[in-house]
Hints:
Chain B is mainly α. Chain B is 79% helix and 0% strand. Chain C has helices at 2-16, 45-51, 54-58, 75-84, 96-104, 149-160, 175-184, 194-201, 228-233, 235-253, 258-265, 272-278, 284-287, 294-309, 326-334; strands at residues 24-30, 65-71, 90-95, 109-119, 122-125, 141-144, 169-172, 189-192, 206-210, 220-227, 343-344, 350-352. In chain C, helix 5 (96-104) crosses helix 14, helix 8 crosses helix 12 (272-278) and helix 10 packs across helix 15 (326-334).
Amino acid sequence: xxxxxxxxxxxxxxxxxxxxxxxxxxxxxxxxxxxxxxxxxxxxxxxxxxxxxxxxxxxxxxxxxxxxxxxxxxxxxxxxxxxxxxxxxxxxxxxxxxxxxxxxxxxxxxxxxxxxxxxxxxxxxxxxxxxxxxxxxxxxxxxxxxxxxxxxxxxxxxxxxxxxxxxxxxxxxxxxxxxxxxxxxxxxxxxxxxxxxxxxxxxxxxxxxxxxxxxxxxxxxxxxxxxxxxxxxxxxxxxxx
Amino acid sequence: xxxxxxxxxxxxxxxxxxxxxxxxxxxxxxxxxxxxxxxxxxxxxxxxxxxxxxxxxxxxxxxxxxxxxxxxxxxxxxxxxxxxxxxxxxxxxxxxxxxxxxxxxxxxxxxxxxxxxxxxxxxxxxxxxxxxxxxxxxxxxxxxxxxxxxxxxxxxxxxxxxxxxxxxxxxxxxxxxxxxxxxxxxxxxxxxxxxxxxxxxxxxxxxxxxxxxxxxxxxxxxxxxxxxxxxxxxxxxxxxxxxxxxxxxxxxx
Amino acid sequence: xxxxxxxxxxxxxxxxxxxxxxxxxxxxxxxxxxxxxxxxxxxxxxxxxxxxxxxxxxxxxxxxxxxxxxxxxxxxxxxxxxxxxxxxxxxxxxxxxxxxxxxxxxxxxxxxxxxxxxxxxxxxxxxxxxxxxxxxxxxxxxxxxxxxxxxxxxxxxxxxxxxxxxxxxxxxxxxxxxxxxxxxxxxxxxxxxxxxxxxxxxxxxxxxxxxxxxxxxxxxxxxxxxxxxxxxxxxxxxxxxxxxxxxxxxxxxxxxxxxxxxxxxxxxxxxxxxxxxxxxxxxxxxxxxxxxxxxxxxxxxxxxxxxxxxxxxxxxxxxxxxxxxxxxxxxxxxxxxxxxxxxxxxxxxxxxxxxxxxxxxxxx
Lengths: 241, 253, 364
């Protein structure tokens, strides 16, 4: 099917069914891609975007795991944190953008903070859910075996909660990537989002399409990588069960 | 964990109260720069001012109008596509991978393309919001349609249901819980996209535009006021969605 | 439930459809907004035409024609997008770079008349940023609104001082965002027009450089275009719109109207003093001429070549096939203004005198 679409694209561009402004010729996009790869610009921008995402995601996920775990394990913690967390997470990430720009400016810190925030929410939510939903019976087994809290955590709770935790991580990474593109579109001087906004300002659809393809490809790669890690850890989970 | 006796009911309010108290104290005592952190009353006063005189109601109406148009278009297209993918094996094989590939692209990456295709005015914004609402609707409807119990499908065949009747009486009710989850997601994403569209596309009346205006003119109280409104709306949406979902599911029995 | 959905969709579509009545809508787009996003232009003939209602007056006796102005904060690039999406009929005051970019990418328009030529640009910097000359920009953080005629004007200035866009960090910000970033200290400086003078009066920026007094070809240019589609469908309307713009130009170039013109521009929220300063030592007619003479054509050809050199455009742009002087010539004849504006050849030497006698320095 993708092949069919590609053929359709080439044919329609050649026949001029849609104007140049709506659908660029695949040849142009390919040529543009080649130019940008050759000049090293594409690699540089991609690297910068990836760096931002990894920093932001690492921070956001780490904090999310901690807070999520606290919420999931301790009734008290949950009661305290739940309401403010809920209220704050109701404002879409981008709604916080203007406030953050006023507070931290438009530089790297802004991007990392926004990305971390967008990763934090799903990670925390899913981790809390996962830990809370550990079946009674499993917990009781731990109590019967008089596990100390650390063993309880590592042998029973975490493995049981792992699927949820990973759903959260996967969602967090997807959110991070989304937010990164959005922030780079807004105010940046490098990165894939910047490349896209450059293409838009200079009315060059082929640059936009090229950047779009790269963004999609990386999204796919990130998802796939996380899937592999999850599968590896699942195996470990099964072993410890 | 050993179940505890019910917690003191003020627990959930602990953090908000502390934060509020600190905030008020900081502005009273002059610890914080009033430009960067206006006192809570200032924010509330601003909300009041904007609602009564500042035209916030118009902006809100504009945003909601855009958002609902986009949501309607995106969600209906999404449910339709999801049903197609879930019910027809052929469609799933042909369009499925394409859709999954499309999902990999970050939502906001479509902004430049959409603004070049539809312009940056209402049409472009609504197109973007529709796109945002469509994806979750498709995914969930697809899953729901795929998981309709065989028994129901066979029963429909026995009763020689036409295509449309099948959809109305078997597919939709069968997939309803999933569809509702998808719609709830679509609502959230549509709202996010509405604010995003106002930030990235042409200036027009709207809540996102107001938020941006506050930032550009360094009116922190306006920014915080808009965030308060956004938060309140977000909560209202979740609440409504939950109630609607419960009600629809109850009817289904 | 499905039926309800379909009905709702249908209703939406109907509501969105344009009015099919007998009225013809003329949609003009201007690439810019005034202070606080006010829908007013400044600094050119289009601003005079809009604020002075010249177009509306032209069609005052014709109820079947409606005029609609849209002001785009996204400047030239946003106007291009609207043109591509078929949402505009006239691009009024579109800068040279975005017009060239649009044409290079296949936008089908006709160049009818000029709006302004070599408009001065300024380099506004944060006070205490330590930037005193263009050379000091090396390695600094600046904002630049990409795709606007400001970008190419700034690039030319940089090139003349041995710099390129790569020597500094240029963040893509529109004007309002740039001001916010300047105030917040996120950037060190920004190129801009007369708005920067207004900012200087408020103490927000210092002016480190201006093209005033420097090579006059460094400035910005803008013109008025019509879509080929609209021109083919309504040539009579195009003629009348052009006539209205020429009348506005005649008004704007008259030195006795200087204060009136500044007052019209001040509707944008930029104070009159800023315009006075911007035009000090110049006649209005020096910048505001509707003619597409050899000088203007040479300027645009030059800009097109430079756009390609700076990597802003990837094809060669055909300037000659773009121009349609017929409407302009007709308007000039009807209003008996054929000799009102002087004509210059490609080198900037005056070929024919004009009654309004601007003083134009020889071009390099």
